[in-house]
Amino acid sequence: MQFEHLGARPRIHPEAIVSPTAVISGDVEIGAECQILHGAVITAEGGPITLGACVIVMENALIRASAANPVHIGAHTLVGPMASVSGATIGDEVFLSTGTRVFNGARIGARSELRINSVVHLRTHLPEDTVVPIGWVAVGDPVQILPPERHDEIWALQKELDFPGYVFGLDRETPDLMIQLTERYGRGLARHADDTRVD
Question: Mean pLDDT, to the nearest integer, of 128-157?
Fold first, then answer.
């Protein structure tokens, strides 16, 4: 399913194949020989998304851009089932395994491999040819790659990256943080009420 969102329609190369159950919304450009499988969602929430040639987006993966953080996924990259890419730049020939999470402002260098359920946090930069092991967490610039049981160290690095401030423009210490966050985010998402299906 393809939707016009905020006045922009998806642009899909004629040699790309998009499953009829995938959702492509807004300012999305899909390159030649891409494969977008069942249940994938590619949604440009105010910022553009570009997929280079031969990108595979597998079942139930989510790719989301924002006005502050567009998405670019380089050629010959695979986005695994249930993986999530939010406002990030992904180089060529990258493997994002099942369940990986890549957050806003992150940059993944060419030929990197994010193994099953690994996480690349906000504004983290992975140099080319980096491997993030199964379930591990990459955080910071310069990057540190840590196992999940080292949560206190991860949190010390992650806290400085300021997820609520960077993504939502809200101070983490706000007493009613989740009220403000959901109301603000909800108003932004309400723009989908005017979307038009174009396929």
Answer: 94
Fold of 2-197: UDP N-Acetylglucosamine Acyltransferase; domain 1 (2.160.10)
Task: Say if residue 194's pLDDT is above 90.
Answer: no
CA atoms within 13 A on the CB side of 54: 8
Residue range 165-185, pLDDT digits in tens = 988 889 888 889 989 889 988
- Per the CB < 8 A criterion, the answer to whether 31 and 14 are in contact is no
**Is the dihedral angle over the CA atoms 77, 104, 82, 119 positive or is it negative?**
positive
Helix (H, G, I), strand (E, B) or coil at 36: strand
Q: What are phi and psi for residue 56, nearest 5 degrees? A: -115, 125
- Give the pair of three-digit tokens for residue 175: 């007493």
Question: Phi and psi dihedrals of 20, rounded to 5?
Answer: -65, -15
Would you place residue 19 in the very low, low, confident or very high pLDDT band (cuts 50, 70, 90)?
Answer: very high
Indicate the domain borders of the chain: 2-197
Q: How confident is the model at residue 185, as a pLDDT?
A: 86
Q: What is the DSSP letter of 109?
A: -
pTM to 2 decimals?
A: 0.91
Q: For the chain, what is the radius of gyration of the CA atoms?
A: 17
SS3 of residue 113 by DSSP: strand
Specify the pLDDT at position 79: 97
